[in-house]
Amino acid sequence: MTLAVTGATGFVGQALLDAAQRAGVPLRALTRREQHRRDGVEWVAGDLSTQGQLRELVRGAEAVIHVAGVVNAPNPAGFEVGNVTGTLNVIEAALAEGVQRFVHVSSLSAREPGLSVYGASKARAEKLVRASGLDWTIVRPPAIFGPRDTEMFEMFRLARWGVMPMPPRDGRSSLIHVDDLARLLSALVPGGEGISHRVFEPDDGKPGGWSHYELARAIGWAMGRRPRVLHLSKGALERVARADRFVRRHRAKLTLDRVGYMSHPDWVVSKGALPPADLWTPQVPTRDGLKATAKWYRDNRWL
């Protein structure tokens, strides 16, 4: 069995490669840049816009796991190209090569597409997958953390400084460790009754998710600190986002688009959308995972 993977060089994709390598499952993975040789991985040069390379990627594969996507873009066109057009191109390649099984990594933000351009683009990509005629499953992860992550890394760095600005106090969100997400994506490959044509929202198993205060303190604990938690209003977050844009330009992490969904109070996964327990359950306790993630950042000189 060979699996075709997009986004294999990113945060989630690397964890998926690790999981497949441990299981002895060969992968064919898309890359825009030359990669080091890796056992069990056949690298295919190309990106989501290169139809010929996408067909080469999926040719003869048992399934496609579409991880690639854009989480930060300077304008709506960037999200459209990366998340919508890119998904359509992968679907068309799968159809052209007769690959029926399609596991699509979306985002919990697709549940509320009116809050952000990012969420709207992920929702449109989901519509394409549903209408594709493929044997699909969609996974909407909540906030993902773990080694190599560049998004939640900002929170670990703030914790080290002892002050953590967070969204409004009344908000809650679910979390998932990247290794648990990778295990789920692998487990979904066979498809079948109760799995195909379903949308799943996995998490770490904490009922009701995490309040922003709880998450900030948990990250502080992982860093060996007891940070002061500052809850900012949506307006205050927008001012910080403008300042971040002014200072870091295109490298800014807090964007106005992100403020739109960060300020929403409910990013807890739906109980009815959890994956079947006999297929998958989370294995990484979140506090242990946060502690290990902080160690990885230190060991790799990110902190």
Strand adjacency order, main sheet: 3-2-1-4-5-6-11
- Average of the residue pLDDT scores: 95
Distance between the termini: 40 Å
Distinct helical segment count:
10
Q: Give me the CATH architecture of the domain at 3-143 and 176-205 and 269-283, please.
A: 3-Layer(aba) Sandwich
CATH top level of the domain at 3-143 and 176-205 and 269-283 is Alpha Beta
Helix content: 40-55%
Low-confidence spans: pLDDT under 50, at least 5 residues?
none
Can you offer a commentary on this structure?
This protein has 303 residues and is of the alpha/beta class. The protein has a domain at 3-143 and 176-205 and 269-283: 3-Layer(aba) Sandwich (Rossmann fold). Helices cover 40% and strands 17% of the residues. The protein is built from ten helices and 14 strands. The strands form four sheets. The chain has a seven-stranded parallel β-sheet with strand order 3-2-1-4-5-6-11, sandwiched between helices. Helix 2 crosses helix 3 (76-96) and helix 8 packs antiparallel against helix 9 (256-262). It is globular, with a radius of gyration of 19 Å. 44% of the residues are buried. The model has no long low-confidence stretch (mean pLDDT 95).
